Amino acid sequence: MPSKPLPPWEDPNVVGINKEPPRAHSIPYRSVADALAQANAVQISFDGLWRFNWVGKPTDSPEDFFELSFDDSEWPTITVPGCWETQGYGIPIYSNVRYPHPAAPPFADANYNPVGSYRLWFAIPQEWKGRRVFLRFGGVYSAFFVWVNGQEVGYSEDSKGPAEFEITRYLIDGENLLAVRVFRWCDGSYLEDQDMFRFGGIFRSVSLFSTNPTYIRDVWLEQEFSNDHNNAALKARIEIAGSSSQDECRFRLSLFESDSVEITHAIGLATETVSLDIEKPMKWSAEEPNLYTAILCLYDKSDRLLDVRRFQVGFRKIAIENGVFTLNGKPIKLKGVNRHETHPDTGRTVTRDQMIQDIVIMKRHNINTVRCSHYMNDPQWCELCGEYGMYVIDEANIESHGMGYSFERSLGNNPMWQKAHLDRTERMVQCHKNFPSILMWSLGNEAGPGVNFVASSQKVRSVDPSRPVHYERYNEVADVESVMYPTVDYIIEQGKLKTEKPFFVCEYAHAMGNSLGNLKEYVDAFESSERNLGGCIWDFVDQSLRVPTNEPPDWQGRDWFYAYGGDFDDHPNDGPFCNNGLILPDRQLTAKIAEVKRAYQNIAIELIDRERIDERLRVRIRVTNKFAFLNLSQFQPKWQISADGIGVLDGTFDVVELEPGRNAELNLECDISEVDQNEELFLRVSFHLISPTRWADSGHEVAAAQFQVSSSQTKVVSAIPGNTSCMQDDKKIVVVCEGGEFVIEKASGLLTSMRCAGLEMLSRETELPGPLFHVFRAFTDNDIWFQKQFLDSGLTGMKQRLRRLSVEEQDKSICMKVVHECIGFKGTGFILTSIYTFSADCTVAIDCDVDPVGELPPLPRLGLLIRLASEFDNVTWYGRGPFESYPDRKLAADIGLYSGKVQDQYEEYVRPQENGNKEDVRWATLTNSAGIGLRIASDGPFRMSVSHFLPQDLDQSRHKGGEPRRRIQLRPRNEVIACLDVWQMGLGGASCGPKPLPQYICEAKPVKFRFVISPVDPS
Q: Which residues touch 791 (CB under 8 Å, ≥6 apart)?
């Protein structure tokens, strides 16, 4: 008995029914003028409100909803394009590796497979009579059937690829009905297991376009360059479809330098390949995105205009020479990011303006490459990248991660799935082949090895031999060697190999939460060898969704929060692992992307020599042009001298005529007679756009570096002469100074009060405001490499118990020696010996000697925590800023004098965690509105953070991966939490990748440190 045939949505050999073959993306226009102006396309948008019905499984969907007579008057409407889940239907599911449905390929779960039914009435313009009409879907999750006027038109899967159907014969005069049934999951979903939120619905635009009966079906614009790359030929191969025979048609190919200036053209028969020879064309690159416009016109034998198409042309030649990736004959570096199509309010649906916003942010932060992870993007994205200047790695919509990588289980090695692999790969290449922004074709992501990728790579090369093939999971079929999340040393060693393949890191520097440690070292490793092509950070933007709370607004004024995996009761889920972005979901910039800008900059600035002689400062700077094509004459170099963090002198250098790869010296000599000899001097050198671009105004800073050119003399804090006295009883010690008093609890040996200028400085929200010894920080997402070890050590339950306390009255001060044992619940920890020296002006110097006890794990931090009264919420510091910095992420944070509110030092991460640290602080003040407060200093630079949250508040507020759903609204404490640290763990990138480099790891060892706290009183 023959087996029952599989339905199309469960048959891997059915990738579409009655779909048009893939073609180069283009839109028909009525005239050359319209095409040049990109106006009046022969197209109708169906974006807007559609009638909609949603059910949880296919058997519940209305069977006859596509009939003309079906009554949909009680159906609600839904916005197209749009995801169901962001419009109230079903839930988004965030999963990384695991399939969000039972893993039984090729079958879809019959019990839970939501189906959306769409209906839209439309009319055809009268002038389209006698023409062909095509229906285009830009992207639909994940499989769908189409009916027009009750007749079935076809079927499609591959949620990120376009699907086009000719519907001419189904149309009637007057009103027409379009009906679409969308399945959330199908057999194709097994190839769409990307690390992202999973959605359903028609999430990209839907449109109609019309052509003459004979029309341009496809165009392949190829380029050939002379050996010296100076001259080029543009060749057009076109495919004609329709009623007229091709030998009766001819076409005209015109090349325009601007919207109105035609520079050359050629005329040929439709059966011919026509070539345009261009002498010394302006070449395209991300640095110089010079574009031409090609207009292709099709005529019949009577010279009647049949079709007009517009294409973007960027002359560039990609080659691999001796293992080095070159563009236009020059080695380039890909300074990239991975990017998902995502928006916090609309999920996978993004607008053109939002695409431009992303590109502008990338360009302004020296990002030159984007990997379309992990699927075909909307063609508008490729087009915009061409206009603004971004290298694109286009990727097929293939990832079967949930099946594993073995040859036995990988769908990439299963012949039954070869047709689907080839269809998705070829569709990507055929549709996007004419976009100059695309440098490489990627066969997919994390789908294992196998014969299907051998076939896919062969297919790509047969269609487009001009671009290299990338596939990280099976380098054998690719033209570049590629890995994910290597160590810095691994990249350096790869650069030393002699091979024909360049080395490219498709994912690195996992930017989850507070992250991006040692990015500078990664970039240095890429630049250590011409073979090292570069890499793409994972990834560009956090993927969380904005969800209302139905609660009063929080401390930030929000009545919503960013939701991630598990917040929708989605199962399985991978928690906050979708938040790996350099920026927040709403595109708010972060300290992370500032670090990228500084690390990725294409102008290296080095201090060669400095000399301070009396009243003159002489400095020599070496500048290296790391661009591949730009001369530095396009940038204005500037300089600024700061003294103890305050700018005192500034000026400009002469513009530098410097070709790529060359270096030059800049000399600066300036009069510093007005600068105190004891002040610390820093020189900041920066380069700025002279002329505006599409992505930034003139004056935009593209590169900068800061150097210490004169150190300050160490300011030793000593006891201040004056009257001090000490009083004791059974419970407390009171030290009375001329400016106030300190109260120490005898039972704990800790301060309970500090009064200066008539005000209580310490918090009244707790009995023991400090200073407390601490080693804990709210775990970052990248602390996973040592988090369990730290939790198992018992140090989270560390108690600070008094061993001994003694007080000695001296001539100028009162000295108190306190010994604490700071021991966790497993008996290990630290012995802390502190000497407090109280001076007459209410200054207290705290000298600490720390000795570890037992075997201890790496430490998140080490220092003191002080809880101050809430009114001291104005912070000023001389150190790195203005944003947060960490030992292995401080390249972009210049040393200066900064100030602000304590609450503004909070740096947001979707899952709250350690934030706001300031590196290399010389001193800081915390004051009230009258300027009264405390000054904190040390004998050398220290680390500091100030907040209205304790580390535990942050750590316990949201669930992590693998934990039950939890969201405790953060409520600022009515106090200021000041963390004064001698150590802070580096960030690294171990949420997916290596832990911090050895020099940035805090190991428990003996240490001595000193903090000096003194009053600030403007009077």
A: none
First to last CA, the chain: 100
Catalytic residue ranges: 446, 507
Rounded to 5°, angle at Cα 769 from 763 and 773 = 145
Residues comprising the chain, all counted: 1019
Residue 63 CA to residue 72 CA, distance in Å, equals 13
For residue range 666-684, list pLDDT tens digits in order: 999 999 988 888 899 999 9
Q: What is the pLDDT of residue 358?
A: 98
At 546, list the tokens. Answer: 């904005």
For residue 720, the 8-state DSSP code is P
Which amino acid, residue 802? L
pLDDT at 717 over 60: no
Where does residue 270 fall: left (phi above 0), alpha (psi -120 to 50 degrees), or beta otherwise? alpha
Strand order in the sheet with 163-166: 43-45, 206-211, 132-137, 163-166
Closest listed residue to residue 628, CA positions, set 334, 387, 330: 330
pLDDT at 228 (0 to 100): 85
- Quickly count: other Cβ atoms within 10 Å of residue 799's Cβ: 11
Write out pLDDT tens, residues 602-657.
Answer: 999 999 999 888 789 999 999 999 999 999 999 999 999 999 999 999 999 999 99
Are residues 65 and 89 in contact, defined by beta-carbon separation less than 8 angstroms? no
Structure-token pair, residue 91: 């839930």
- Separation between Cα atoms, residue 956 and residue 394, nearest integer Å: 40
- Indicate the residue type of 600: Y
Nearest to 436 by CA among 317, 341, 330: 317
Query: What are 403's strand-pairing partners?
Result: none
pLDDT of the residue at 558: 95
CA distance 1018 to 1015: 10
Q: What is the DSSP letter of 699?
A: T
3-state DSSP of 27-72: CCECCHHHHHHCCCECEEECCEEEEEEEECCHHHCCCCCCCCCCCC
Measured CA to CA, the distance from residue 178 to residue 120 in angstroms comes to 5
| Dihedral over Cα of 456, 458, 463, 464: its sign | positive
Name which of 86, 52, 84, 96 is nearest 574 in CA terms.
Answer: 96
Euclidean distance between CA atoms 391 and 470, whole angstroms: 14
CA distances from 574 to 280, 398, 757 (A): 53, 20, 53
- Token pair in block for residue 271: 């059966």
How far, in Å, CA of 308 to CA of 256, rounded?
A: 14
